[in-house]
Amino acid sequence: MHFYRRSASGPWWVKIGRKTRKSTGTTDRQAAEEFGRALEQRLWRRDKLGDRSAISWREAADRWLTDSTRERRRDREFLAWLDPKIGEEAVSDIADPDAIEELRKDGLAEGWSRATVDRMLRTVRAVLRACVRWRHLESVPHIPQYGEDDPEPRFLTKPQFARLCRELPPHLNIAARFAVATLLRSSAQAGLTWDRVDLKARRAWVPRGQMKGKRAAFGFVLSPEAVKLLRQARRLSPTGNHVFQYDGQPIGNFNRGAFQKAARRAGVPGLRWHDLRHTGASWAVQCGVTLPELMVLGGWKSYRMVLRYAHLAPQNAAAAAQVVGTNVAQALKRKTGS
Prior knowledge:
By secondary structure, the protein is mainly alpha-helical. The chain is 52% helix and 8% strand. Helix 5 packs antiparallel against helix 6 (114-133). The chain is globular, with a radius of gyration of 23 Å. The N and C termini lie far apart (81 Å).
């Protein structure tokens, strides 16, 4: 992997092998190196492991336009707007409810009307559905429109999760339990390496290049359960730098055939790996974790994203409700006394 600039003040470019030359879109060398490592890993997953979901959004969008017999002028405008944002991202990372929500917010930040944002997301959905036809993806997440009700995040009950774990092969059993215990996104979990895990300090971190939207690096605390699961993962795969492996190779996409078949056997068909993140978040709120605490634990960018879980813990508002009720009673008492 080689980095270079085409002009003194321009962005860094990365060269990987003989064919791949990409602009990193940044003049910061450290950020460019993170971009290069993420790109190199995605290309490796695609070329060496045959991970079809590692195809980039740009490649998928270009193929979708090429295959179409229609002019698609408006779709082309949206795709041109999307390209600098997600062009280098794997389609499996775009087919994520949180990623879709970020695109929605970006559209609103542009000053677009809700109807225009819906139109942009229909273009995204069309490309992702084509990826399912081409067998790059197993499924496409529901993409709600402003005219539709936004469905609640799906989460498993504890008996459902126990049934799922019994059906999963050992490598996915450990990974699924870790997903619920840490609230990690699937892409960050797949890219987790041992050099970014400190079992003694009970901490781990995800580099910027593996974070959704390439935001700042994300550090998280490892609970005793997470530490136990990491040690089991190491015993299961004693060699290699990636934490989650199968047959000596990193697991690029958890949401594939083995997981889907286990979910059907467990009586939860249509389950996505991302639903395990929702499961961990839902259980945490039900056990008394506050929404601000949950936002930090799961690395959500905005408080609005964690408000989806507020209804699971109405008891957290009991004290506040008591204060409001007391104020009403006191006001009426004063009025009666006067």
